[in-house]
Specification:
Blueprint lengths: L6 H10 L12 H7 L4 E5 L4 H9 L8 E5 L16 E3 L5 H15 L9 E2 L3 E6 L3 E10 L3 E5 L9 E8 L2 E13 L5 E6 L6 H13 L1
Parallel strand pairs: 1-2, 2-3
Antiparallel strand pairs: 4-6, 5-6, 5-8, 6-7, 7-10, 8-9, 9-10
Helix pairs in contact: 1-4, 2-3
Length: 213
């Protein structure tokens, strides 16, 4: 679905501020992904987004492009988890928020990977606490050593847990970890993967391959 003004103008201005030249693909995106290489794309979340994201992720030259969703919430974007959406512009789109998101992810788009070792990606994470209490969270960023997540669950720093998730070319994996930090006034927390759990190495390899792809 085509992105129209004023959202289109705001997005174009924000990307240009960081030296990223945008282009409007309208209804041609899926076809052009098959023959042209792009570093990133912004897709309005909705039923029309599925074929566009599918075309991007199955394209040899665009399979690791940065995908931004437009509209809805992080929870809404979970229906697109298998495509590995990296970040979401929420509507109504406001320039300060859009600029902040582009600033936070520009290094990935520009391939300055040495300055950005965390990958923003939104997917559903299943978490199990001691005593078999389970709940779901939404990932924010992932690195080879841990990840940040959002959940309404009350957690404490140091709490052990086990996470389960799948990411694009990474089949579902289980890994142990501990809560390493938590934002007291919010729902965001960090998990450090257990260095004694060798399953974390598959995540580290996936992150490195993603950054090199």
């Amino acid at each position: 679905m085509e992105i129209k003004d004023p959202a289109k103008s705001i997005l174009f201005d924000c990307f240009r501020q960081f030296g990223i030249e945008p282009a409007a693909l309208s209804g041609q995106a899926a076809e052009r992904f098959k023959s042209e290489k792009f570093e990133a794309c912004v897709v309005r979340l909705g039923s029309a987004a599925h074929p566009v994201m599918e075309a991007a992720r199955t394209s040899p030259s665009n399979s690791r492009m940065i995908i931004y969703g437009l509209g809805g919430s992080a929870q809404d974007s979970l229906q697109f988890s298998k495509y590995g959406i990296n970040a979401v512009f929420h509507e109504p789109l406001e320039r300060p928020a859009a600029l902040k998101l582009v600033r936070a992810t520009q290094m990935l788009v520009l391939h300055e990977f040495r300055r950005y070792v965390r990958i923003p990606v939104i997917t559903e994470i299943s978490i199990t606490l001691p005593g078999n209490h389970s709940f779901t969270a939404t990932s924010v960023e992932i690195s080879g050593g841990g990840m940040s997540l959002r959940s309404s669950e009350e957690l404490t720093v140091g709490q052990p847990l086990e996470l389960s998730f799948a990411l694009l070319t990474l089949p579902r994996i289980w890994v142990r970890g501990n809560v390493s930090w938590r934002v007291a006034a919010g729902k965001t927390f960090g998990v450090r993967f257990d260095p004694q759990d060798d399953r974390r190495l598959r995540i580290k390899e996936w992150v490195e391959a993603y950054l090199e792809g």
